[in-house]
Amino acid sequence: MKKFTMIVLTLLCSSPLLAQIQLGGGLSYGLKADRPALTVKLLKPLSEKWNLSPGFTYYTNDPYIHRDEPLRLENVNRLYSIDMDFHHWINLRHSRKLRAYTITGMNFSFVVFKSSQVLGLNREAIITETFNEVGLNLGLGASYQVSPASQLYYEAKVVGFSDAGQLVVNLGFTTTLGAKD
């Protein structure tokens, strides 16, 4: 198993393979969650028109909520999601640096509610409730090439179409691994 792991790591770290992968991150904002988030993402070209883009988004924490409040997405203590998106590039004829793309993919959301409940005699219990959801992602994005190896990107997508579903906007920066400007 160690030998297999070393071979995989060597292949992943080889320069020709890294030169195809972009790593980046940015700031996101979930409109329904009403809080900022940090995003980390990879971009791996599959063809001239398609990219695979896995990503991880972590929303900032909220303080404890009172038990009598409804457990809504706005009241969560911890919210993070894993996205597996595909980007389809749209051909823009008049610009070499600005590119647009559609976003389709899957979203796995993990939500943790931490609430307090008064037990009496100045005692309080902390109650933790969790749930996970799987949903679809649909949206649009654009990237602007800053240098041969790096670009700024903007995305607006609907993440999930269930109770945890929301519109998320994301602004960030990616750079090609192993490339030299």
Structure description:
The protein has 181 residues and is mainly beta. It contains 2 helices and 9 strands; from the N terminus they run ααβββββββββ. The chain has an 8-stranded antiparallel β-barrel. The chain is globular, with a radius of gyration of 20 Å.
Query: Based on DSSP secondary structure assignment, what is the total number of beta strands?
Result: 9
Tell me roughly what share of residues is in helical segments: under 10%
Question: What general outline do the C-alpha atoms trace?
Answer: globular
The biggest sheet, with number of strands, parallel, antiparallel or mixed sense and barrel status, is: 8 strands, antiparallel, barrel
Q: What is the ordering of alpha helices and beta strands?
A: HHEEEEEEEEE
Parts with pLDDT < 50 across at least 5 consecutive residues: 63-68
- Tally of contiguous helical segments: 2
**Gyration radius, in Å:** 20 Å
Report the mean per-residue pLDDT as an integer: 79
Write the layout of secondary structure elements.
Layout: H1 2-12, H2 15-18, E1 22-30, E2 35-45, E3 50-59, E4 65-66, E5 78-90, E6 98-120, E7 123-147, E8 150-159, E9 166-176
Parallel strand pairs: 4-6
Antiparallel strand pairs: 1-2, 1-9, 2-3, 3-5, 5-6, 6-7, 7-8, 8-9
Key traits:
mainly beta; 2 helices; 63% strand; globular; 8-stranded antiparallel barrel; single chain
Question: Gist?
Answer:
It is built from two helices and nine strands.
